[in-house]
Amino acid sequence: MIDATYAPGSPASAEEAARAPASPFLRALRRLLRKRIAVICLALIALFYCAGIIAPLAAPYGYAEQNLDASFEGPSWAHPLGTDRNGRDVLSRNMFAMRTTVVVTIATVAAGGIVLPVTLGLLAGYAGGAVDWVINRAGEILASLPGLPMLVLISATMRPRFNGWVGDVEDWVGWHGLTSSGFADYFLIFSVLSLFGWVGGMRLIRAQVLTLRGSQYVLAAEAAGASTPRILFRHLLPNVLPLVVVGVSASLGAVAGSEIGLTFLGVGIQPPHPSFGALISDGASRIVLQNHPALLLVPAAIVSSLIFAFNLLGDSITDIITPGAR
């Protein structure tokens, strides 16, 4: 006879479920939400990202919509932040620039901050031998190159060729929306940033896997005949996730700053697609700054706030996840 006290759905079982220990993710999230500065940073980042995501729907004007009769207008009901030299709405341009930052940041972090370093770090640490040697030598070659000059060089030299490839694809499929959407620029920038962004994370994960591959649960999985992918992603990956989370949180600001810096130098996102680098470059001339300072101050304030929020959030996450910092 089954005691109803412990039957599923009974009050006792509900109380036991409520008393059950929360997962490590939920415990870390609760500690993060107790930090006021972390909550403020999350709210600020969410505000900027939402503005970028809904820009095509919420922006009052298109990012390339011009009215030469309304050049350099001051703030008004029609243009809350004024217009630029071509009569384009400054608020709309900044919202679409935020969309550019969102696309490039998410794509770069996904590829260069998660997929590449996690996969290569797990393989290098667990497989060892020739696999470890090849991955480490490739990482050392990339790490030995000067980062910013190589980013500028690759982006500048590969853009015409890559644009030609995109044009060939459009002709083949009979659809010419890739170029007009800025896909070529977005893909090239996040590919270049990802190429140089995986080395540090891979080394950290590899070092952690080297200490874990001789542990009892890994040896037991091997003795049970578990496949290599199962050992890597079922047994080792959960133990390196804190490193991944800390690395991603610390790299968000750097990725956003790199894209903006490349565009400021003229080798990033190309016109007419807006980017904060281009907006800051357009407003940085002495004459424009003296007469229309909002054209520089608005994008500069957004970029500074966003990167500052990323850095403070990364510090908060590091304090929570790193045991020695608690």
Content-based structural category:
mainly alpha
- How many distinct helices? 15
In this structure, how is the largest beta sheet organized? none
Low-confidence stretches: none
Overall strand count:
0
The CATH topology corresponds to MetI-like fold
User: Multimeric state of these chains?
Assistant: single chain
Helix content: over 70%
Q: What is the name of the CATH class?
A: Mainly Alpha
Q: What's the short version?
A:
By secondary structure, this protein is an all-alpha fold. The protein has helices at residues 11-19, 24-33, 36-53, 55-58, 90-127, 129-144, 147-173, 177-180, 183-197, 199-212, 216-223, 228-264, 276-283, 286-291, 294-321.
